[in-house]
């Protein structure tokens, strides 16, 4: 029993060492957006080139989200490659547990990513009095 514990402790140390500095990075096709994420998908870094600021907001949003998705996929693949030899036949259990803790970033439909627009009917005009009702 002590030997099993020592083996598991050694595997845990190997696993921690393997994933400690692991991250996925992706850059947009035009190089205006670069993101780095942890294997969990947590955003570690976001870099915007000067030409990113000349884009429409929804276009920049889509490029950021696409880069995050690709970086997350890259980090997850790195994680799988690093831990598979350590976990051996327990790899599927690890993947199930990891996936349960990690939200999948799914693309939003194009019409949902555009900034909301308001119509004149929705606006209240408080120009002649208090905004309190």
Structure, described:
The chain is mainly alpha-helical. The chain has helices at 2-19, 57-87, 91-101, 110-113, and strands at 24-27, 33-37, 43-48. Helices cover 48% and strands 11% of the residues. Strands 1-2-3 form a three-stranded antiparallel sheet. Helix 1 (2-19) runs antiparallel to helix 2 (57-87). The longest helix has 31 residues, at 57-87. The protein is elongated, with a radius of gyration of 23 Å.
Quick overview of this protein structure:
The protein has 133 residues and is mainly alpha-helical. It is built from four helices and three strands, in the order αβββααα. The chain has a three-stranded antiparallel β-sheet.
Quickly list its features.
mainly alpha, 133 residues, elongated, 4 helices
Care to count the β-strands? 3
Summarize the main sheet.
Answer: 3 strands, antiparallel
Biggest sheet: strand arrangement: 1-2-3
Q: Specify the number of helices.
A: 4
Structural class: mainly alpha
Q: Give the averaged pLDDT, no decimals.
A: 79
Proportion in helices? 40-55%
Order of helices and strands: HEEEHHH
Q: What fraction strand?
A: 5-15%
- Gyration radius over CA: 23 Å
Quick one: overall form? Answer: elongated
Amino- and carboxy-terminal Cα gap: 72 Å
Low-pLDDT ranges: none
